[in-house]
Structures are given as C-alpha cells and as structure tokens.
Amino acid sequence: MSAPSAAKPPSAAKAPSAAKAPPFDPGDPLGLDDLLTPEDLAIRDTVRAWAADRVLPYVADWYERGELPGVRELARELGGLGALGMSLTGYGCAGASAVQYGLACLELEAADSGIRSLVSVQGSLAMYAIHRYGSEEQKERWLPAMAAGETIGCFGLTEPDHGSDPSGMCTRARRDGGDWVLTGRKMWITNGSVAGVAVVWARTDDDGGEGGGDIRGFLVPAGTPGFSAPEIIHKWSLRASVTSELVLDEVRLPGDAVLPGAVGLRGPLSCLGHARYGIVWGSMGAARSCFESALQYARTREQFGRPIGGFQLTQAKLADMALELHKGILLAHHLGRRMDAGRLRAEQVSFGKLNNVREAIEICRTARTVLGANGISLEYPVMRHATNLESVLTYEGTSEMHQLVLGKALTGLDAFR
C-alpha cells in the first residue's frame, strides 16, 4: 500500500483577516460606547448638548454667587427633555432604561453636581416615592406635573440630629380625628424652598392609630399652614443648588396625605437606593470633566520648553485618572444592566457608590495638581467639582455606611451597632 499524499488546503481557503481595530480614542479608551444602543447614545448626546447650552456657560457664576437662578425654568426644560422621573413609566414619565437614566446623570453632573441633584431628588426620591408607594389619586395629582417640571418635589428624611440613622427620627405625625398633624424639622433638603410638594417621613403616634409608631411618608403641599422651607446659605459645596431646611409646626394634613404603600424604613431606604444608583453614574461625570480639563491643559501648558503632558510624571497622573474613570463608568454600566434585568441588589449599589465617589474625588484632586495654581480658579471646573463631591461623598449614605453594608454582606455580621 502506498503512503497517502499530504493533504493540500483548498485554494479558496484563506486564513481569516483580522478585523482592523478602530483608532484609540482618549475620550473612550475602552470603547465603552460599543456597549450602548443608538437610543442610549441619542439620549446621552441630547442631555450633553442641553447641559453645554444651558448650564456650562453660567455655572461658574452661579457657583460663585451661591445660587441657582431660574431653577423653575430649568426644571421645565429638563421635563421637556424627559429627564425627570425618566426611568418611571406612565403618568407622563419617559419610561427610559436604567442605563439611559444613568447616562443622563453622568452628563448632568459633568456640568455640575447641583444640576444632577435637582434631577435626582425630583425623580429618584420624590417622584419615585409617589410612583411606588402612592395611591392612584396621588399619582394622578402629582406625577404628570412633576414629570413636566411644572411642579418641583423634595424629599424630607434627614434631620438635624439624625442622618445616617434615620430610625431615630424625631419628626412626629399624630392622628387628630381624620387628619394627620406633623411636627418636626428636616435638614439639608435639596429643592426644599422651591418645591411644590414635599415627601416628608415621620414617625406616627403609637396610641392605636393607623401605623402604630411606624415610619410613614406624607405628601405636604407648599403653602400648607405651619410648613416652611428656609434656604440654607453659607455653603461651600453644591453652591449652584437649592438646599433648605423643612420646618413642620403642627402641619395639618388630610388623612389621604399619607403614602399608603410605605410602612417602616424600607420605604425611604428603597428611594435612597434608587438615588444612589444615579450617583454611581453622576460622580463619573464630575470626574470626566476634571480629567478632560487636565488632559487639555497638559497638552497646551508649556514648562521647560515643552508641554507638561510630555513629562513622565504628568503622563502617569493622566494614565491613572483615565484608568479609574473608565473602570468606574464600566462599573456603572454593569449595575445599570443589572437594574434593567431586575437583578440589582442594594449591596451592589453600595459597592458602586463607595467606589465611584471615592475615585472621582481622587481624580479631581489629581487633576488639580496638573493644573497647578490654575486648578483653584473658577475659570476651570476642577475645584468646583472637587468641593461638590465632598457633599456627594456623604449624602445618600456616607462612605462608612456603605463600607458597613458591604462588610455585613461579606461576613454575615451586622456592625452598625
């Protein structure tokens, strides 16, 4: 038997040619835009263009003056974009995906944390509370106007003496016939003095009335006798934002002012979880703005006869900033997909908030060193973002609280007390 001849490949069979990689994009070094749908990109670009037109030219002046002029007009414009309560469905809400809402938060906070806070408190706290826990009558009364930005909402949970531990709240709601009477104070309330309705959390009386000592949510319309919202001034963070105290002095509300679906702390905490998710994205917007400023500055600022971006130490800073920025955006995107699939856990939101805000602050501080003395000027956004992020670090749960959330999840042991 003769030996078989060596097989020859068919002439038509050729090794597949490697796909040509696109050029490296300093603005998207990981190619994360590939994860987004055309609709995702359209929403992102729409919000980015609005912020570039309506916020960026003015926000340094707003920040320096410590005010947010025209907030009601801005709210109506944001409502026209579909950015208010955008991940909610029905009642005039956009019904967008969690990822699309996150992209909007990123673009808004790239302009300023105060603008993103306006949207987060409106949609993720006030509107979300009504949408999830309100009666049909409450939803019909408030949500369409809030989605359009015609009515601004606020969310009253934090108190002067109770922040991280809301279970100790002192605000009380007692029954008086068919009415509720609320007394207490809330502190550090975004949108408070411009809100048409406040979602206020209070501990009910324990004399056998409805709730029996439980924490309940109440809808308090602006102008209700005994209710006031003095604005907090002398802030050095979130200066382009409306921050207020809520004062409730024997505020009488009808029996149907209570949110029927929320009993106990689970109600307000679920709202906070929704808002924290927006912060996971938004903090990366502030970080991106600072990184882009540092990158542009490094390309054009000359020392020792050449751009400082040509020095190894500056390049090391830029590389580290880009690394953490885009890792954070990738983390936010992953959590968004989990939320859209109904698989996102509160511990995972804590993971994202803890990491991304912490890294955003470090990116801002590093960017400040690249800009040198110019980094403290409002001609650049870096110091404004850095001071804003000091508030973002502690609201919707301090870093320590999120560390303890993760610690409990990892060990099974509760270290909060």
From TrEMBL:
One of its GO terms (molecular function) is flavin adenine dinucleotide binding. Residues 264-410 form the Acyl-CoA dehydrogenase/oxidase C-terminal domain. Keywords: FAD, Flavoprotein, Oxidoreductase, Transit peptide. GO terms for biological process: fatty acid beta-oxidation using acyl-CoA dehydrogenase; fatty-acyl-CoA biosynthetic process. Residues 1-31 are annotated as: Disordered. Pfam families: Acyl-CoA_dh_1, Acyl-CoA_dh_M, Acyl-CoA_dh_N. InterPro entries: Acyl-CoA_Oxase/DH_mid-dom, Acyl-CoA_Oxase/DH_mid-dom_sf, AcylCo_DH-like_C, AcylCo_DH/oxidase_C, AcylCoA_DH/ox_N, AcylCoA_DH/ox_N_sf, AcylCoA_DH/oxidase_NM_dom_sf, Glutaryl-CoA_DH_mitochondrial. Residues 154-251 form the Acyl-CoA oxidase/dehydrogenase middle domain. It comes from the Bacteria. Its cofactor is FAD. The keyword Iron-sulfur does not apply. Residues 37-150 form the Acyl-CoA dehydrogenase/oxidase N-terminal domain. Belongs to the acyl-CoA dehydrogenase family. This is Acyl-CoA dehydrogenase. It comes from Streptomyces corynorhini.
